[in-house]
Amino acid sequence: MGGKGITVGSALAEIDRKSMENLEPFIAGVYSKINLGLDEKLSWDRFVGESGSNLIYKYLNIFRDAVELGGKPDIIGQIVGSSMLEQVLLREKRNSIAMGFVILLVPMHAMMVGIFLFLYHIMVMMSKAISSVVAELGSSSSALSNPGTVGGSLGGSGLSMFVNFPEQEVGLFVVIMIIIITIANVIAGKIVMGGDRYMYYFFSSLLLLVTGIIYIAAPVIVAMFFNIPTFQGV
Fold first, then answer.
1. pTM across the whole model
2. Residues in CB range of 3: below 8 A, 6 or more apart
3. What are the residue ranges spanned by the domains of the chain?
């Protein structure tokens, strides 16, 4: 445009579109609209909207505004192009660093959720096993009050908490903690990765999926590997 003194439409015709495969259909659309005599500003706005790139939105408007104010297109294009390239390289560097954090974020979240759920279900299973032993001895309250019985020995050994284990209260506490951990990890992932608000949806769906799988699988796995025997005929 600047050195050759040609129009925008002619400049678009000389662009090597093969080097920009992703933008080729959008460039062809702008070229066709401008050659048909449509409004140039609306054509470029349509191009920016269809491309969906924040870099194109910022730097294309800078280039067009500077040219309309009388700047030389070749000099402005060089400045805008170098600035855009520098920002792209910085984004690539950030993405490479952030990806390492995201790769660790998912298993770390799964581990934290798993610790809460597995410990909770193990305690529930121990509570049911100990309560069944105490129930077989008669009234649990009288058994715990008599130190000469097996139930009394359980109470004296510090296991009485499992007899009246607050399953619902602890379960509610575990759910609240899992929700807090999930929200914190979603926010942390969004801050590290950056991007638009859609990253919240991405991390929310990913971490909620992992949480749901562990929430369903935890009681099944605990029942398979932690089978606490009860003492019959004691």
1. 0.62
2. 74
3. 8-90, 93-225
